[in-house]
Automatic annotation (TrEMBL):
Domain of life the protein comes from: Bacteria
Entry-linked NCBIfam families: 16S rRNA (guanine(966)-N(2))-methyltransferase RsmD
One example GO MF annotation: 16S rRNA (guanine(966)-N(2))-methyltransferase activity
PANTHER family the record matches: METHYLTRANSFERASE
Keyword Ubl conjugation: no
Record InterPro entries: DNA_methylase_N6_adenine_CS (IPR002052), RNA_MeTrfase_RsmD (IPR004398), SAM-dependent_MTases_sf (IPR029063)
Protein name as it appears in the record: 16S rRNA (Guanine(966)-N(2))-methyltransferase RsmD
Keywords carried by this UniProt record: Methyltransferase, Transferase
Length: 212
């Protein structure tokens, strides 16, 4: 299913797109971008469509923003009702921007922010006994192994049953409709990017046995 959204993004005085919190307790708060061209924040248009797919609002729960960049997705989830968020990024500049954006949104007490590589971070979160109801995977588009990472997240016990996983990726790359314990719920394309949403259902990929 493809979602279309004709809303216009906010423009800054310099003519560049400015990302903001769209809804919830921090609605309208502007979010800073990471300096340079290495980080590509999710646009308001795509972000609004994503939360239309998975929410749009939440009643508590923990969210993991694993390739957090500016922190925009995790912040939006907190603003819409998630109780606590863990933000992970390996870039120092991204971590500084996430801290500033979380503070600007008034969500500091609900956020944990760590500088780490995603694979290492997953192992640390497993040792801490973390479990999440929502996970965002928005890596650099050259990374096309998010299905393998999702399997590792499941193997390490980091997802609650029924958890949603949102993958933002290059539109030319197609992830499978079902693999492991994941079932695809939504897939939408927006120009050269795509969003695929999965639900985690333990045992979904196991063969059914007949009773005699």
């Amino acid at each position: 299913m493809v979602w279309y959204d004709s809303s216009s993004p906010v423009e800054s005085r310099k003519g560049k797109q400015q990302v903001r919190v769209i809804a919830g307790t921090a609605k309208g708060r502007p979010l800073k971008a990471v300096p340079g061209n290495n980080t590509r924040p999710t646009t308001d248009k795509v972000k609004e469509a994503v939360f239309s797919m998975i929410g749009p609002y939440f009643d508590g729960g923990r969210v993991l923003d694993l390739f957090a960049g500016t922190g925009g997705l995790g912040i939006e989830a907190l603003s819409r009702g998630m109780e606590q968020a863990v933000f992970i990024d390996m870039e120092r500049l991204s971590i500084e921007v996430i801290k500033q954006n979380v503070q600007a949104a008034g969500l500091t007490q609900q956020a944990e922010i760590y500088r780490n590589e995603a694979g290492r971070a997953i192992k640390v979160l497993e040792k801490r006994g973390e479990r999440f109801a929502l996970i965002f995977l928005d890596p650099p588009y050259r990374m096309k192994e998010m299905d393998a990472m999702m399997v590792e997240l499941a193997d390490r016990g980091l997802l609650e049953e029924g958890a949603r996983v949102v993958v933002e990726h290059d539109a030319d790359h197609v992830y499978p409709e079902q693999f492991g314990s994941y079932i695809q719920l939504k897939h939408a394309r927006y120009g050269d990017i795509a969003v695929t949403v999965y639900r985690y259902e333990p045992g979904a990929g196991e063969p059914q046995t007949e009773e005699h």
